[in-house]
Design a protein that fits this description.
Layout lengths: L2 E5 L2 H9 L4 E5 L17 E4 L4 E4 L9 E5 L2 E2 L19 E2 L25 E11 L5 H6 L6 E2 L4 E2 L2 H13 L9 E10 L8
Parallel strand pairs: 1-5
Antiparallel strand pairs: 2-11, 3-4, 5-8, 6-7, 8-11, 9-10
Organism: Phyllobacterium pellucidum
Protein name: ASCH domain-containing protein
Length: 198
């Protein structure tokens, strides 16, 4: 088990806060190729006895990990000259996604949010490796996609289609069609700083 930071875009932070998002997918960087058929071997993959399939030996996430969410933020403008590493623990923070502009400081990127300023903690409950397009309707909903109802047709929208648009907005045009290997991480969301979690 480890404590790690994780970045989320504003719409995904909103989905976490609303209780809709309990899953995320991250691309697994290609590493090597394991094959029993051509005689090649690599140390990058191991056989998973649980489902008799190959999986990456080193994944960034494990069940039991605690992830602290990094999001866009700001502090008082009097602190604008300080890099995040020099801000004191407990410095007042506004979260951009909330729309609050009380502190009037400069917009700070999510990747620079210190651990103490995070307000959301994710407890990892499941980790799977799969192709991106294996994302089911239930998975798309767990990714934070809202169901859209078309009452005039008496049916629901397609969550996977909406998730595809979100994916391509974040990862670029053609990223869905590339169908990369991803790690699908499921988690429980706690609305508190990681250092306040018992």
């Amino acid at each position: 088990m480890a404590d790690r930071p994780i970045l989320f875009s504003a719409p995904m932070v909103q989905a976490l806060l609303a209780g809709r998002k309990t899953q995320t997918r991250r691309i697994i960087k290609p590493r090597g190729h394991a094959s029993l058929f051509d005689g090649s071997w690599t140390d990058d993959y191991v056989l998973d006895p649980g489902n008799a399939s190959w999986r990456a030996k080193e994944l960034r996430f494990c069940i039991g990990d605690r992830l602290y969410v990094r999001e866009h933020w700001r502090t008082w403008s009097t602190s604008d000259h300080l890099p995040p590493s020099q801000l004191k623990v407990g410095t007042a923070v506004d979260y951009i996604v909330d729309g609050a502009d009380v502190l009037h400081g400069k917009h700070r990127q999510a990747m620079h949010m210190p651990r103490w300023a995070s307000r959301l903690t994710l407890l990892v409950t499941d980790v799977r490796v799969e192709r991106l397009q294996d994302c089911s309707e239930a998975d798309a909903l767990a990714e934070g996609v809202e169901r859209i109802v078309f009452p005039e047709r008496g049916d629901w929208g397609w969550p996977q289609r909406k998730y595809r648009k979100i994916w391509e907005n974040i990862n670029g045009a053609g990223s869905w069609e590339a169908n990369p290997w991803v790690v699908a991480v499921s988690f429980d969301v706690l609305n508190q700083n990681i250092d306040e979690v018992p």
